[in-house]
Amino acid sequence: MTSLSGLYSELLLASTSPARRALLDGLGLPYRAVAPGVDEVVREGTPVHQAVAQLAERKARAVAARHARSLVIGADQLVSLDGQALGKPADEAAAFAQLRSLAGRTHEILTGVCVMGPGYFVTEVDVARLQVRALSDDEVRGYVATGEWQGCAGGYRVEGRGQALFARIDGDRTSIQGLPMQRVVALLSEAGLRFF
């Protein structure tokens, strides 16, 4: 039986991402997903590692401010190519450009996670390395036409048809999907949550 140990009123996910909800659903914990409603812009020139940590913390703090006794999980994700952040493409042309820039190269995907509640606060960043296959323009156009790029940093989704984009993936698959579950479980345990 799961337990919040009387320390928290409830567990909240500061995200409406279907991928993050699906990952957290897998733990079988009672929780609610709450839209953080924050500005996701960081100061220009902020290193990607710091930017993703700031965004995860910003989301967690926004939800915690409205639910003071809750344990809150905030997360964010950025793709880094040569130290430059790639966010979510605005349209098909931007998705094509991002995927074209990644083709045949290795990049990093950084996932920030912040867990906070009364008496507990930790922010961490998980880093995975992904090598995209050498892709023709027609292959990139074909993938973009699937629509999987929508709402995804880097213009791809590693689940579904996006699996065919990669030659190699080094790192936690759940982190790449949006929530580093091994780290999340460790942080929730540290915060006093019991899973069984």
SS summary, helix count: 6
Kindly identify the CATH topology. Answer: Maf protein
Strand content: 25-35%
First-residue to last-residue Cα separation? 5 Å
Main sheet? 7 strands, mixed
CATH class: Alpha Beta
Number of strands: 7
Structural class: alpha/beta
What is the correct CATH architecture?
Alpha-Beta Complex
Indicate the mean pLDDT.
Answer: 93
Number of self-contained structural domains: 1
* Fraction of residues in H or I helices: 25-40%
Overall geometry comes to elongated
Radius of gyration, taken over Cα atoms and rounded to an integer in Å: 17 Å
Which consecutive residue ranges, at least 5 long each, have pLDDT under 50? none
Order of helices and strands: EHEHEEHEEHEHH
Please sum up the structure shown.
This protein has one domain (11-190): Maf protein (Alpha-Beta Complex). Helix content is 32%, strand content 26%.
Any chance you could write out the topology, listing elements then pairs?
Layout: E1 11-14, H1 18-25, E2 32-33, H2 48-66, E3 71-81, E4 84-86, H3 92-102, E5 106-117, E6 120-132, H4 137-145, E7 166-170, H5 173-177, H6 181-190
Parallel strand pairs: 1-2, 1-3
Antiparallel strand pairs: 3-4, 3-5, 5-6, 6-7
Helix pairs in contact: 3-4
Entry keywords:
196 residues, alpha/beta, seven-stranded mixed sheet, 32% helix, 26% strand
What does this structure look like?
This protein has 196 residues and is of the alpha/beta class. It has a single domain (11-190), classed as Maf protein, CATH 3.90.950.10. It contains 6 helices and 7 strands, in the order βαβαββαββαβαα. The chain has helices at residues 18-25, 48-66, 92-102, 137-145, 173-177, 181-190; strands spanning 11-14, 32-33, 71-81, 84-86, 106-117, 120-132, 166-170. Strands 1, 2, 3, 4, 5, 6 and 7 form a 7-stranded mixed sheet that branches. Strand 3 (71-81) and strand 4 form a beta hairpin. Helix 3 crosses helix 4. The longest helix has 19 residues, at 48-66. The chain is elongated. The N and C termini lie close together (5 Å). The mean pLDDT is 93.
